[in-house]
Amino acid sequence: MVMTRFADLHLHTTRSDGYFSPSELVSKGARLGFSTLAITDHDTVGGIEEASREATRHEIELIPGIEISTNYGGKSVHILGYMINIQNAVLLKTLSGIIDKRIERLENMVHRLADLGYPLDISDVFSFIGNRVPGRALLARYLVKAGYYKSVGEVFENILGDSGEVYEPVSVLNPENAIEIINGAGGISSIAHPGNTRVDEIFPRLVEAGLDGVEAYNPIHTKPVVSHYLKIAQKYDLLVTGGSDYHGPQCPARNIGQIKLDYTHVERIKERAACFEVFGW
């Protein structure tokens, strides 16, 4: 009997805005029967080594990944990277610059919240975030903790979504920059949850810039949306990726186990990464 192998290629840990530590998350994935996981924290590779050690303990495959924040016309567009060299100097320097910009953005958003009647203590906000990558999700959790809202989703619907009064993009990179950096680190790039960002017009220029894949499978994608992005993948000869975009129990609509990507897609990612290494494609 041949056992089916499947993967989740979009997971977040406490190194960015996830609920579980890298070890806890890998252990959780192993218990659910995943053969392959990818840690794709926002703008950091800080959890990869811990996750890799835990994956070895459970005898499952850990793909080093990342989700890089970019800005396209004022919209937040995320580019996933897989099979990256986490020691790549250009990648690490770029991520350091993004973190600096994220800190500045958080300060701006906290000041904007004060103007709107949310008098937050910025030092308390940073204390709450700790050594995690500062972002909107953590700020939303702080607002829930402070009693201003009942859920993270409610915060985004009212003030922190891309069209919200407090929103400010992380304006360091455009999507093409992120693709170049991922490819330069030996990795494979894929546009994250395109059904959410809804910027299909950008595909031709991203493909020209070297985009490798599209995340067709994501919990927020309905069946027609999945079908749409599978057709786009076929049109542009893109790899198909997928994952739960799991952040933890605070986001029940995106739960680990909802997306079980067939392992053939992982094999294709690895094949293309090998071509980069051998032929410099």
Q: Which features does this protein show?
A:
alpha/beta, DNA polymerase, domain 1, 281 residues
Describe this structure in words.
The model has no long low-confidence stretch (mean pLDDT 93). Strands 7-6-5-4-3-2-1-8 form an eight-stranded mixed sheet. It contains eleven helices and eight strands. It has helices at 22-31, 48-58, 89-115, 122-129, 136-145, 152-160, 175-184, 194-197, 203-209, 223-236, 263-279, and strands at 6-11, 36-39, 61-72, 75-82, 188-191, 213-217, 239-242, 261-262. It is 45% helix and 16% strand. The protein has 281 residues and is an alpha/beta fold. The chain folds into two domains: 6-85 and 174-279, Alpha-Beta Barrel (TIM Barrel), CATH 3.20.20.140; 96-160, DNA polymerase, domain 1, CATH 1.10.150. Helix 1 packs parallel to helix 2 (48-58) and helix 5 crosses helix 6 (152-160). The chain is globular and about 55 Å long. GO terms for molecular function: 5'-3' DNA exonuclease activity; 5'-3' RNA exonuclease activity. It holds the Pfam family PHP. This is FIG00031715: Predicted metal-dependent phosphoesterases (PHP family). InterPro entries: PHP_dom, PHP_domain, Pol/His_phosphatase_N, Pol/histidinol_Pase-like.
Give the topology, please.
Blueprint (H helix, E strand, L loop, with lengths): L5 E6 L10 H10 L4 E4 L8 H11 L2 E12 L2 E8 L6 H27 L6 H8 L6 H10 L6 H9 L14 H10 L3 E4 L2 H4 L5 H7 L3 E5 L5 H14 L2 E4 L18 E2 H17 L2
Parallel strand pairs: 1-2, 2-3, 5-6, 6-7
Antiparallel strand pairs: 1-8, 3-4, 4-5
Helix pairs in contact: 1-2, 5-6
